[in-house]
Amino acid sequence: MIFFDHVSKIYNHHSAALKNVTLRIEPKEFISIVGASGAGKTTLLRLLIREEEPTEGKIFLDGLEVTAVPQNAIHHVRRRIGTVFQDYKLLPLKTAHENVAFAMEVAGRHDEEIQEDVTEVLELVGLKDKMGNFPHQLSGGEKQRVAIAPGLVNRPDVILADEPIGNLDPVHTREIVGLLQRINELGTTVILASHDKEVINAIDRRVVTLERGEVVSDEEKGKYLV
Amino acid sequence: MSAITFKRILKSGYLNFRRNGWLSTATILVMVLVLFVLGNLLFVGAFAHTVLDSLESKIDVSVYFVPTADEGDILALKQELESFPEVVEVSYVSREEALAQFRARHQGNALIATALEEVGENPLEASLNVKAQDPSKYAAISTFLAERKDPLVDKINYFENEQLIQRLGAILETVRGSGVLIAFVLSFIAILVSFNTIRLAIYTMREEVGIMRLVGATSWFIRGPFLVSGVLYGSIAALITITLLFPFTWLVAPKVMVLVPEFDIFRYFLSHLVEVFGILLLSGIMLGSLSSVIAIRKYLRV
Fold this sequence. Notes:
The complex is a heterodimer.
Chain A (H helix, E strand, L loop, with lengths): L1 E10 L3 E11 L4 E5 L6 H8 L7 E6 L2 E2 L8 H5 L2 E5 L10 H11 L4 H14 L15 H15 L3 E5 L7 H16 L3 E6 L2 H7 L2 E6 L2 E6 L7
Chain B lengths: L2 H17 L1 H38 L2 E5 L5 H12 L4 E7 L1 H11 L4 H10 L7 E6 L5 H10 L5 E4 L1 H46 L2 H10 L3 H41 L5 H7 L1 H28 L2
Antiparallel strand pairs in B: 1-3, 1-4, 2-3
Helix pairs in contact in B: 1-9, 2-7, 2-9, 2-11, 7-11, 9-10, 9-11
């Protein structure tokens, strides 16, 4: 479903963030991309949503060559991919409800449908009483739940989670990981980038380890040993 | 773009405007300053026009006739001059009227009154005062009159004042041209200030633009709300500016009339209220919307 075909990303002619990475991710997989800071985890995810372009190689999403999609059509690809970031990336002038609804509005869904689904999913993630709150009025864990909620309501093909638990305490970390696993059970491919050893090992799913931009290991029920 | 998307863009633009209170206020205030300058440029233009017209109207050519000239012949020449397209007006001053005007101008002067008594008869001549459309036409009119070699004509005063009239005409043209240039430069500066203000406002929201792009919003879905906010900034700024111009023109009017009694800026403003508001509103909306569209392009490019 997702195929990185000999992908490299080199900055300033000599600094390689990724080197000749070949990686295939099947539909409905839950895969953890692990490695130290600077290993290339974030770069890998940014290439998939075309926030950056590879220096070499190609990237495919369900047979579609993402790297060849024209700039004015890339939004179609991005609508199939949900994203969760360490810094939440919520729209500060929109309430929790409006932030979750935004992803659906972008996809052209109707107001009644949005109202119903968003309310339901925010109740599901335990934010029923905070739907009208703005991001600055939410805790870190609550913000992350708002960031993940579109993944539950929109059912994108893929969710990219880039260090989503980096700023959270253990309780909220378990909540967020639990939500990601739930989204995966509903059929969405989840790619989790993290350097949190305990969390990755607890998930007990496929682990791909990056080191200085290269894939050094790829195990089905892998462990993060570094 | 569907109706639903359009509605969402309008709503999002309005909410951004409302929820970013301080930023919106600061942007509007800067635009008020810009529109205030533009509004006053309109008044300065009208003021300059009045002054220049007034100066121009004071230039004329006088044709003096010999004391024996028949009034009927003078009036016939008057009619002939009035038929020229370059001539705006010809006024006849008879010898008696000239004497009466002379006595009125010098009524406190005993010496002149005595001199007139001594002379006995009316020493002044009848004249025709010719006003042309613009100063450049006087040379042709005066040449026509001189070439007629009319025995009734004693003197044409254009040739004595030819240099002065030509110089005044050149000054008037230069002032008009400079006025246009100054207005253009000030307008350009105003546009730049407005553009930079809105660009700054959008810069503070660059992260949001990035987030919207990540979610898969189209360029117009992202751009639209900023365009709506830009229109709101411009429209509200225009309303505030037109409100401020009421007391401003009322206060300034008496001072301006000391210099140029013919120009009442407050009355001018009231009589052109709809046009002034229309220009300010259109300028505000165009400045706000175009600035937004141009400023956000940078963040949509990647």
